[in-house]
Amino acid sequence: MANLALVYEAQGKHVIRELPIPEPLPGFLQVRVEAAAVNPADQKIFDSPRFGLVNHWPTVIGWDAAGEVTKVAAGNSNCKFKVGDRISFACIPSVSVDGGVSYTSRGAFQQYALADEKYAFKIPDGIDYASASTWMAAGISAASAMYTHLRVKEPWLGGKDAYKGQKIVILGGSSSIGSYAIQMAVMAGLEVITTASATHLEYLKSLGAHVAIDRSAPDVAAQILAATGGPIRHAIDPVSFEATQSLAVEILQEGGVLNLMLPLEPSVRPALEAKKIELRWTYGVEGMYANPELHVAAEEYFKEGLWRFNRPTVLGGLEAWETAFDMHRKGTVASWLTRNEQKDVVLHWLLKLA
């Protein structure tokens, strides 16, 4: 068997070539990748050394994947997965599992990768690999916003419907993080007011949003305030561009709480400080929600239809990476670092390439 990979050889340099198929270690699964989601972070890492999430080359990037378990480590009798299981799993590029010999086995953009059992779950019957690959980075980021930074109690710990009567604003609701944050907020009992492009408003209502507002409306702030009954206490801004940050500050009450996914824009700081808004964000690894129980619960919620996977746009195989990255650069797809509110981009591996 071959393992065709999109190898990150150096800053700004990708090469498609074969790598050894990684062998599973205790706690890890060997997985044949069937679909891998392309996040804006992948494009940012490739384009800019200041992004700082890759420190070793060659490596393989890509944070989210779904595929079939092909091997379990010998002697791993406590493993809850078996060969043939269909799983969604998190990837962590530029991490070594063999003491620094290699840094390629944990990235998503290859035909075989290692999955950490703690950050994986079985895909429900009837769900395709492409949809299932949209969960990990966006789901963890949404959970970070809700459960870590806004301190909403997890539903599996008694937080289900615990916040009835309270409201939250989620800007950019049809972004990858926004869509999952809406579903988490609804499960908590929160009344969600969200924004998106006009074509996605009905979809967001189907996820449980109480009010969905056209983000391009000239009176978008007034519409939000009308829906919330006045300045709001909590807001999440998965988009985190200057315009959305300014909007969030405008609709928040004095002393409110704002969760961002990118650092605060300098131009927004004076208004934020004038209203004494407490700033919280999930940018970078620090502050991310690392509780494996999230994925245990998510497996059940997706199976029961309480949560729904994001809607993917499927491109080609490994050779489609340039198209995917360019779509993120131009803002024609959405995820946790872009402002446009379309669908996730998923690179769907065509295994016949090997």
The share of residues in extended strands comes to 15-25%
**How many DSSP E strands?**
15
Helix-and-strand structural type: alpha/beta
Unreliably modeled segments: 334-342, 350-354
Q: Residue-averaged pLDDT, rounded?
A: 90
Shape label: globular
**Main beta-sheet annotation:** 7 strands, mixed
Helix segment tally: 10
Beginning-to-end CA distance, first to last residue? 8 Å
Order of helices and strands: EEEHEEEEHHEHEHEHEHEHEHEHE
Question: Helix amount, in percent?
Answer: 25-40%
GO molecular function, one term: oxidoreductase activity, acting on NAD(P)H
Pfam families: ADH_N, ADH_zinc_N
Domain Enoyl reductase (ER): 12-334
Protein name: GroES-like protein
Annotate the secondary structure layout:
Layout: E1 3-10, E2 13-19, E3 28-38, H1 40-47, E4 64-72, E5 86-90, E6 112-116, E7 120-122, H2 129-132, H3 136-149, E8 167-170, H4 176-187, E9 191-196, H5 201-206, E10 211-214, H6 220-228, E11 232-237, H7 242-251, E12 252-260, H8 269-274, E13 278-281, H9 293-304, E14 312-314, H10 321-330, E15 344-347
Parallel strand pairs: 8-9, 8-11, 9-10, 11-12, 12-13, 14-15
Antiparallel strand pairs: 1-2, 3-4, 3-6, 3-15, 4-5, 5-7
Helix pairs in contact: 3-4
